[in-house]
């Protein structure tokens, strides 16, 4: 385990100085990032100062609002830290969102300054981009809440939630990481495959790594061989951090070399089948750890040594309980901005919408899956109600139901001149690729209950689609 943050103090984490004290402090020659070459702390501090001046020129002030729509990159890191050093609230938008989704998000968030990609010169397969950004002042609004970071739960349209976390909350999560046995130690490396725009890569790799003195190093390309090359590039121990989708990258390497530097691979997101974990350990001789977390709170529980699969140990200072089959997590304040929903947060408890159980003897937590409509596709969360709302709003769509049936599957009733092809083309403009239905079935009419409600039973909808195909 690593050093704690007890000396930080509550006053520090409510002011911009927390960035210097928690994230940027360290020896000038400490290599904290790697992007085509090592980036030491002195260089990172210079980059942050340069971005801070540029954002200030665009009008960003303490209490202002900044939106970042950048791929993971040194530019992303520098602008994020610069925004926080100014004292601004920073909203993170996934660079893979469509223009339609970005416009909707900007309409909701109303940032005063927007940072977007200008020229990207790196390969699309690179998880860490080489990007020149553009900075644009906008007629937005100053921050209405004390949150340091704002994220959208599953995109930027439909019923997605606006989630806010304060600097104190982020520092508390970094503190939890320092007390979890099995996390990378000072002087070690994180080979990060998870996007730093989302909570696992943002806090579990970037912020924790900067604080703990752990180098954050993405591979040159998102391939199995490139990941192993990144591990082998230096003699220091390395942990590979990603989502279950990334396990397949390493599994695809036919004859991997001996890698004494490889300490473990850790994944967050959906549970990994025991057979997959066993095959990984047999191939590489290291544990395949697992983490459970949420955008609303960060890391909740872990099993970094693969000792309790599928069960997990709650992270320090978090309580996890089971209520009527649902897992609740202690959180003093609601993370939702502009939403008061006692079914999601009430009386200091975050309702995760995950089914699960807590062992009364050991306290170990077992997550059994989602209770609501949110699913994981390639490690990225998709809210099916958002997809359904987007589909239902298209011209010519009379009714729609979207389910996850091995893949995202849409059923729709259409009026002329709408066709399946025109609907799919419209969805391409409005939804990121990982959110789009893999199957679109046109039904006329859509099955309904006796009370007129749309039927959502998978077997009924499958049967209706089979009858159309005959």
List keywords for this structure.
alpha/beta; 2 domains; single chain; twelve-stranded mixed beta sheet; GMP Synthetase, Chain A, domain 3; about 30% strand; six-stranded mixed beta sheet; 25 strands
Polypeptide structure, described:
With 470 residues, the protein is an alpha/beta fold. Helices cover 29% and strands 28% of the residues. The protein has twelve helices and 25 strands. The strands form five sheets. Strands 9, 10, 11, 12, 13, 14, 15, 16, 17, 18, 19 and 20 form a twelve-stranded mixed β-sheet that branches. α8 links the parallel β11 and β12. The longest helix has 17 residues. About 2% of the residues have low confidence.
Fold blueprint:
Layout: H1 17-24, E1 31-34, E2 38-40, H2 41-57, E3 65-68, H3 74-86, E4 89-92, H4 99-109, E5 113-120, E6 131-137, E7 149-152, E8 162-165, H5 167-178, E9 189-192, H6 199-212, E10 215-217, H7 224-232, E11 238-242, H8 244-251, E12 262-268, H9 274-284, E13 288-294, E14 298-303, E15 311-314, E16 320-323, E17 326-330, E18 345-346, E19 349-358, E20 365-370, E21 374-377, E22 380-383, H10 384-392, E23 397-405, E24 407-414, H11 420-430, E25 439-442, H12 458-469
Parallel strand pairs: 3-4, 3-5, 4-7, 9-10, 9-11, 11-12, 12-13, 24-25
Antiparallel strand pairs: 1-2, 5-6, 7-8, 13-14, 14-15, 15-20, 16-17, 17-19, 18-19, 19-20, 21-22, 23-24
